[in-house]
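User: If only I could read backbone structure tokens as easily as an amino acid sequence. Underneath my words sits a plain record pairing an amino acid chain with its backbone structure tokens. This is the protein in question:
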Amino acid sequence: MVSHVADVCRAGLWAAFSGGWYFDTNVGIYSFTNAFHLYLWLFLLCYPLALYLTCGTSATAWSVYATTIAALLLLLKWINYELHAMFDGRRGLLFRARRVDRDRGATNDDDDDVEMKEIERRAEEGEETHPPRPPPPSSDNDDGGEDNTSLSARGGEEATCSNLDRVERHQAKPCKLEFFGRESPSSSNSSHSREGKDSSQGTRISNDSPGASNRDNDGSTKGTLTTEQVNVTVYEEQPVAVESKPGTSTETVQSSQTPAKNDDGDDYDGDDDTIAEDIVDVRPTLFFESKYIDEVEAMTTTTTSGNDVSDAVKRFRDAGLDVELVMRLAGENVEDESAVHFAENQDDTSPGSIHVFTDRDEFQAYMFDESGSGMILDLASFGLSNPTRNRRTQSNVSFTTSDSDLSPSLAFNRRFLSRPFSTHDAPPGEIEPIQTVKSPKYLLRIFPYVTVPITFDRLALLSLMDRNPKLFHLILSIFLGTAVSVLGYWLLYKELYRDFWIFWICLVIASCQYSLVKSLQPDSSSPSHDDKMSWMSRSVYFCVVSSLVLILDAVLATRPDDWSQTRLYGISLFSRPVVVYVKDALAVFLLFLPVVFMLGLLPIVNTFTIYLLEQLNMHTFGGNAVSGLGAAVFGLTSSLVAAGTLYGFAYGAAVKEKPGQAFIFSVFMALLLPLSYQLSRLATSPKPLWMALKSSCSKRKSPAIEGDDAAAAAAAESDDFIDPMLTSVVKAVKERLSSDLFSSLLIAVVAFGVHVSTGFTSLQPALRTSLYILAASLGFIVHYLLPQLRKQLPWLCISNPVLRSAEYDKFEVIDPAKLTWFEWFYALALFLERNFIYPAVFLSGLTIGYGPIVQKFGPGFGAAIITICGLKMMRSGYSRSSQQFVIVSFTVLLFEYDYPCTAPHHSQFCSESFPLDYFFVSIFLVKFHELILKVKFALVYIVPWQIPWGSAFHAFAQPLSVPHSAMLFLQAIVSALVSSPLNPILGSAIFIASYVRPVKFWEKDYNTKRVDHSNTRLSSQLDKDPGGDDNNLNSIFYEHLTYSLQNVLAGDLMLGRWGRYETGDCFILASDNLNALVHIIEVGNGLVTFQIRGLEFRGTYCQQREVEAITEGVDEDGGCCCCSPGHIPRLLSVNAAFGTRWLAWEVTTAKYILKGYSISDNNAASMLQVFDLRKILVTYYVKSILYYAVTSPKISAWLSDPVINEEVFNAFDSRHHKDVDPALNVNTDEDFDVQVGGVSLARFTSIYYNWIEYCAKTACPDVDRSRNSNIVRLCFALSLLGRRALGAAAQHQHVVLESFLYGLHALFKGDFRITSPKDEWVFVDIDLLHKVVARAVRMSLQLYQDHFTSPDEYDDSAVLFDAIRGRDEEVVICHEGDPAWREAVLSNKPSLLSLRHVVNEGTGEYKIIMLNKRFLSFRVVKVNQECVKGLWAGQQQELIFFRNRNPERGSIQNAKQVLRNMINSSCDQPIGYPIYVSPLVTSYSSTHPQLTRITGAPFTARRIRDAFHRVWRRMQHCWAQRRQNQSSGVSSAPVTIAPSPSPRRPRRDVLQSVQSLGGHTPPQLLRQSARRLTSSSTVGGSSAIGSMATVSSKGSGLGGSALEILDSVDEEASVAAAAAANCRQSSGLDIGDCAQIIDTSFVFSNMNLDQRLSLNWPNDEWRAKGGRNGWKDWFPPVGSVGRVVHVWRPFHPDPVCRTILDKTMFLLEIDGRFVPVAEAGLAVQV
């Protein structure tokens, strides 16, 4: 603990204070790195100080200092860049291996230098260099000569390594030796060396690379091996032992083997032996078992060498990373292994790109998959994370045998390959440790004849200086360093600091410049490790603040007396004291920069930029929160463009005599309202808008978006999955754009007309006062009173909500949430105040206040003020209407009653007109509300009676928080002003302000990607089942919850179902299993952007305690202090009321209804424990196989296939055929014949023939289905194949339950392994496996589930047949790793079933998972948003900066009053551990069906066109009827058969209730409907049925029982219906008349496919030709003329002529086709 604190203080706090310099104990006390860092920091500190003290404030010293710093940074950055380029292989590189003299303990550098110079000379002269050939190895040469090996350098030059260690070989069989991490070549030479070789001959190692060495018969060398690949051949029969001999510089291996032969039969003398540049030591060989040899041999492949190796691969190899093994690991996570590569830069996000970085001297890696999402590669699990260990491991050797009979399909054991070989693997005493060779030396060519030796690697360079990944970063760092020196010395030149502060400002300058060379990682303000922007933060902040100081100083010097006397609220805006105060404050802030960065009070540059743009847009222009840097720029740019557009009109009105009454000011108002409305309706992120525009401009329109039936059907049949979230967003945005266009035009016209009427000037002040009272009173009722009455605990004193939802008392909800009267009132009131009241209030305030503003501030400045204030008021009224009544009320009360302009004693602080008053009051109230939330969070967290001490530090820090209280409130005020979190240090009672963040909070756009079969390799799916843990599988439910909320969240918020809400609010949705945190990020006019963070289903103990605190009721508590007297009915007790007030959360809704899936899981082991139960499952398995085989459309092709005929039908010709395969067992197979010891064809036929016959009779009646038919033999063969596959998957131990479940799960996920030659005939058509056996396995599990509800129901073949067919259509049965599972869930399929295998605490468990779509009930809990932000910031600081990674740390222990564990668990990984984090999702109110019923659907062009068509048709009808009446004088039939307006809507719900009541419809309802129908028909002369809504293809119909009830209605209703029918016949079309189609929207193209008997067709021929399936590509156009051949009328006594729809239908015959049309779409053809 003490050492950890010391490390944090040394490498954390002090390093943050100094700019990154600290003493690194990991690199050694006397290391060059620490010395370089120390002297560099001292130089940067002392140089400006000494220069200033000696030269003073001279321009020469200033220029010398700036030039020196620029030259120093340029030199350091250039050297660093060149060295990294050298390691990347992008620069000329010479290297050599260093030899160790064990006697002297030193290296022979001089000899190496001579050799290197000789090779360089020869290379320059163009000579071909050949190293001297060493003598051949022999048994009697123990310490002979030295080997010289040729090396191929990266720069194209060659270097020799003399005095290489010589290896002696024992007599052995050939065994190939290769360096670990370099895959052995599988070339023709290698294969040739394995053929025809006896045990006495060796095998020469060959290489396929261009640099591989090849030898002619005469032994001359044709080339050299590359430095990346080395293979050494040894010959042994016994395990190899390497021994070290004192007094020599070589390591030898004793051998009695004769000289080896090369490929041509010559003696192999070893001159092709090469050494890799990264070889470190020679490890002794191992005593190992043959199975390891087999595993390595099975995976040997040819490596990439020479010029094929990329710069990134070379760079990581130099750093000590085993790149080949990393690529193998990455290849398992992508489908195309060839796409795996190391990224050359950070911008490479292509599929398969691997990004590697170091974190605390360990490798970390991540890669991008096919979908563009990143995934972490676990290098630590395979021993690849430690660079030192990797470099040691790469020099180790692995062995493969040269036997040619090894199976190439053996699995590759990565752990064996990654395990470093050591002497501990051999028996003790037989292997003597050897000396380690030192790391290589690099020679960097600087000039043509000048090289510099480099004796360190890349890791040492990275510990010395930060790497600039791009040239732009290098140039930027030099520019920033130079700017810091220029501005810093300018501060000294201006003598702004004196005495001690001169030294201090030099320290600040040094810290800024040092951070450009070596920055602190991780920084206290860095959101994650190794952030790419933290190195420039100090310099940027210093440059910005110092520039402001110098600018203000220059202003003070140039304008000593001439200052504007403009005053705002009695304060001079531009007075000299104000400017001096601001300059001094900024100068002092510069001195505190080290302390500020040490405490982490300033974020990195990009985070601060997002925060600054967001705050500026929100508080200046009334904008919304943003989701990123691009959104911030887009939002502010939109606001500036709108303000620039309005400024010209405002200025034009300002120069008039009466600005508020000028005509051009009315134009300004007419533009202000629609622009504000449009900006409020637009999301800050441009992505949805771009997607909508792209979809509109695209030639190929999305079928799901456009709604075309044929295209949608084609898309449904295709394999492409259309993301419903994307589809919903694009459709909603397109509708909103179309609606906003018409709404903006309407708003502009209305605003101009209202304002130009001078009503806002002539009716004052009565109008203004009335509007203020109306806005305040309506806002109080809607936004305070109603939400309080709807809460679970109104005012925290009433035990139940006063206004309850319709589902509040229901135990289980089966219908969507019903609209209540107070939801209607809330939505209408919200619509009214947003679109009428607040625009009127703000129009009045702008009109009255414009004149005083222009008079006081002038036309130019006044126009800018009125433009900005107007934009903010209007946009806030549209987007944040719930806050406006408080702001307007405070503005009016404060400046019209407390400090009016007419009061002389308040002249120093009086109103500056309503727009300016509103502007500043709105900012003040937002900050004050934030302060209240922070203080509430702090008080709730630290109160002594409920603080949970998660650790000993918490108990120690609790008393220390008492003197900290004053500082706590001061920090709360400051953090509220700048909107920064107030977080507890290490979860204790001591608080500290964190750095500022945007509303989104998390800088990283993190979202969860589910692991399934679409993003994992097939081999890993079969062996390891990746993603098979509960958290990964359960994440799909949170994804579906996100999709559901996207459709309804905006509408539900506008209906008040979540209570009051605002930007930044956090809610927790809690149910039985799902517990998700919903973060509201952006709130606009009809849109909400949010993010969901799903927690674990089975969370920790702490999480469960907090979930219980949410769900438990407090109304049963009857305590009062220490006694229990009870409580008043419907009120809380004293203890309960007191306790609920000390919580940072509250339940706003007890039952929130949302579409979702109910999850039920059954333990498969308990369901299949008994043999009889397993027999039932196998029986259903066989029956399902028979069903899918017989009903398959390919059954005829299978029966006639010659291969199947030969392998199956001929083999099973005899009825006495039997199969005694071990997979068949008497305990599990129903057709097992005990007499024959297996399954016989006769026994199979006796059991399953009735089922086969029924299936064949139903599906393929033309196929021969006798007992001796081929279809029976095919079914028999398939049943044997399916059971053998199950037995093989269960490893032929299906008697054991665990093995049986393992095999069942393997088949369920599709792992079929045909192991018997009897079943190879199935490969004739793979659909026999995919479409028959695989589907049968899954269907059998569903039937087995149904068996427990009705055990004897499926004994009937007809019932079983219908059940399988129905389950195929209704239930999705597949493995949870199958992408079809996710598609089914997101497509809202009604039911799903799967078999899940999870490993819990080392024990495998199988569960049958069933999902049923239903309406889920959630508790909506609103959490103090400052509590969430504070806990998130505290976790980020504790884990990243303080490096406290204890999984049981005190800061994540449960604290019920603040829900600490649930909130901290929802942090981004690796800080938290949510199982799902959604992307930022935008919900639109137009997708909520209930809200659109209240406020109306969006104004789209199609809806407006239809409305005009309906009006035009009614006008035509009226005009035609009037002309006909005038000509004839009597009423006659109208020309157009169109409905007339009815005083009441038809009772469609009466007809729909018939089906819901099972046909028991009260006759009174039918009588009332008939009377209304009769009366309206006789009076109006036309149908009383209202305008027709769009009817789906299936329509809405009744069953047969409903028709019988309609037939049996009493006589009164029948007579009325008949009268109505006769009236219609006399006044409309009848059979034989000609009619013309005038509106194709009334054509029912799919009515003939309706299965619910909405219409009874006269004959089947007309029905077959009466829809799209009969029309094919034809559709009746407008103007088509046909003859009426049949009529359906409501309540007709004849069932054939009756329709249960509420409209008369006509059947037209047009060119042999029959078209059903509603009467509103027809006109009489004269």
In short: The chain is about 45% helix and 10% strand. The longest strand covers residues 1403-1423.
